[in-house]
Amino acid sequence: MTVQQVLFIVISLVVLGAALFVVTTRNLFRAALMMMLAFFGIAGLFVLLEIGLFAVAQVLIYIGAISILVIFAVMLTRGMQGMVPRNSQAIGAAVTAAIIFAVLLLILGPLRVTIDLARWPVISLFAGNASPREVGGIAWTPADRAIPPVPETYIADFGRALVDLNQYLLPFLLIAFLVDVVLAGAIFIARQRRPAEVIEERRLRAEEDAEEAEAMRRASASPALPEGAVASAVDH
Amino acid sequence: MNPINDLLKILSDFVAGIVSGIFAFSPFLADLVTMGLAAVILCTFAALSFMGLTYVERKVVARIQDRLGPNQAGPFGLLQPIADGIKMFTKEDTTPANADRWVYNLAPLVIAIFALTTYAVLPFAPGVVGTNLNVGVFYLIAIGSGSIVAILMAGWGSNNKYALLGAFRTVAQLVGYEVPMLLNVLPVVMMAGSMSLVDIINKQTTLDGNPGIPFIVFFPLSALVFLISGIAETGRSPFDLLEAESEIVAGFHVEYSGMKFALFFLGEYVNALAVAFVFSTFFLGGYAGPILPPYVWLLLKAALIFFIFMWLRGTLPRIRIDQMHNLNWKFFVPVSIVHLVVVMALMKLFVTDPAQAEAFGGILVAPIVQAVILFVASMTVLLVSLAIAARRARVLRLQEEAILEQRRAENLAAARA
User: Fold this and answer.
1) How far is CA B401 from the centre of its chain?
2) Are B134 and A52 in contact (CB < 8 Å)?
3) What's the structural domain count of chain B?
């Protein structure tokens, strides 16, 4: 075994163990920490693949941002200390995970599968004239052939692909737009009211309070209350 | 090779030669041992500089505040760090009864690890760098965000409300100040055309026909914002509201004693020194400089930056949490974005590389002219934004006074009625 293989096995075991801990532990905070360990292991896998950019991005985004937010949510949840998280969705979750894993294996794995929709029972009604299609099968490099190295300029290539009209410009712009919208929304929610607004709000609230007080006064003045209610109030 | 200028390089080559001689049967093992040795040396350097810096900082701050500072242990109190170390070692190592033991005990280790891994990519002299990553800048930022995890672990694991409050403040501050830091590294990365720290330094020297102008001349605003964000990132005074002892006792490390507390302390100083090194690398040209050997230049520049840190610590009061957030989100971030756009456009308009001018258009100018143009643009953005901020602050203050006046009038009317 080469060193890379040993490292791959060790890192994969760490990632899998951490992931198992995340879904089995009853301590939410520790689950979040273990999720970070799993993300860190995945960054290690990227390093093994010699794409440092994605490894560092993994650490920056998944550990530095997403996990921190998850931990914040866990900490701000009231009564989190005494709570024992438990629900009855284990079977559903397991089935979903298995399906997603199978689909990923099908798409990304070495297996090539021919799907003939025209012969499927219900779907054939809608796709009766669909021709058989081959799915999956990423080009698998045999063990005796050298894997081509990652090109030196992969960062620049990646950057150019993001702004290339024929590659990923549209998704990139869409994500930029989404981030802008999120920022604007955050600013709108957390904005500081102008003093004029504050005065106006205070005036409105005072008016509402006055109306309410007026209504209550009128209600108490009118003899509409049942006898019992008044009597019990007096008892107290 | 000049034996004085390339001292570090010669020494490291010598050690690497010995190691590869011993492990001649396996180049891989030789590499592994060499890297292990380098890591040990770097960590020792960081830990020793921590000892020295505590002494220097106490002396300097004492001088600023008209005190003597440590003066009992040894001549001029020089043995004070050792006395502190012995004190830390012999203290009782306590663990709160209801603490989350694993998380509580791991937190100091994690913070020290993240602080020390920063040094892996710092170039100390030509050819002397732990590893010349081609994503070095990105790596530094990512590792910096890792210490947030450790602080959250400490705050949560201690099972103490002050520790938790301190951790919340820390995370809000550290996550926030990462944004302007990143936005102000971008001009440097664009100018150097690379994220490798060695390339960034080379771009500021006279190698390969570069003009040899440090980036602080190109982007003074970036340098200023980066420096202040760096202080905030390390949680030093005046941004030390994460451990404000008058408000939340000592923040996230209130429950730690002995060596665990010392590890937090080490993390803080090592991080601050790393920020000083990184600032010198990004904006002051790193080890580049005339006459003196390169490592001396780097140490001098880093020492200058660290002296600014100590100076601020000795003079400024602690800022409030709302001031901290306002400074970041309402001033640094918008100004940095505007600055980034302006600088980006100017760098496309005035190019120094003939090949680039040929391919993408733009006005071909001498590097000095480009530096002057960018300096003027950066200073203009800085001054205009400061003027706008000052005017805005005045308007807000007047409005606040108007509200107070109105409230006073209301109260008066209510009292009369």
Assistant:
1) 38
2) yes
3) 2
Q: Is residue B401 part of a domain?
A: no
Same domain, B328 and B281: yes
Is A65 in CB contact (< 8 Å) with chain B? yes
Give the SS3 label for residue A7: helix
Co-location of B340 and B364 in the same domain: yes
- Cβ of A66 under 8 Å from any chain B Cβ? no
Give yes or no: residues B110 and B63 share one domain.
Answer: no
Q: Which residues from chain A sit within 8 angstroms of residue B103, using beta carbons?
A: 29-30, 33
Give yes or no: residues B73 and B32 share one domain: yes
Query: ipTM of the predicted structure?
Result: 0.78
- Decide if pLDDT at A223 tops 60: no
- Chain B environment of A196 (Cβ under 8 Å): 399
Contact B134 A68 (CB under 8 A): no
Those residues with Cβ within 8 angstroms of residue B22's Cβ, 6 or more apart along the chain or in another chain: B30, B33
How far, in Å, are A214, A223, A224, A231 from residue A217 at the CA level?
5, 12, 13, 19
- Nearest chain B residue (CA) to A76: B168
Provide the pLDDT for residue A80: 59
What DSSP assignment string belongs to B262-322? HHHHHHHHHHHHHHHHHHHHHHS-TT--SSS-HHHHHHHHHHHHHHHHHHHHHHPPPPPHH
Out of B134, B149, B403, closest to residue A195 by CB: B403
| pLDDT of amino acid A18 | 92
Has residue A17 got a pLDDT over 90?
Answer: yes
- Residues A30 and B103: their CA atoms lie apart, in Å, by 8
Question: Which of these, B179, B188, B277, lies nearest to B232 by C-alpha position?
Answer: B179
Instruction: Report yes or no: B134 at the A interface, CB cutoff 8 Å.
Output: yes
pLDDT at A181: 92
B48 shares its domain with B103:
no
Using an 8 Å CB-CB cutoff, list chain A residues near B175: 65, 68
Range of the domain at B144: 91-392
- The pLDDT, as a whole number, for residue A234 is 47
CB of B359 within 8 Å of any CB in chain A? no
* Averaged pLDDT for residues B212-235: 87
Q: Are residues B252 and B346 in the same domain?
A: yes
Are residue B111 and residue B2 in the same domain, yes or no? no
Calculate mean pLDDT across residues B149-177: 83
- Which tens digits make up the pLDDT trace of B387-405? 988 898 889 888 888 889 9
Q: Is residue B107 part of a domain?
A: yes
3-state secondary structure of A114: strand
Shortest Cα distance from B90 to chain A (angstroms)? Answer: 31
| Measured CA distances, A232 to A222, A225, A228, A229, A236 (Å) | 18, 12, 6, 5, 6
Residues B278 and B373 reside in one and the same domain: yes
Chain B residue numbers with beta carbons less than 8 Å from the beta carbon of A198 are: 403
Instruction: Work out the number of other CB atoms within 10 angstroms of the CB of residue B377.
Output: 19
- Whether A75 sits inside 8 A of B164 (CB atoms) is yes
A226 cis-preceded (ω within 30 degrees of 0): no
Residue-range domains of chain A with CATH: 1-77 (1.20.120.1200), 110-139 (no CATH)
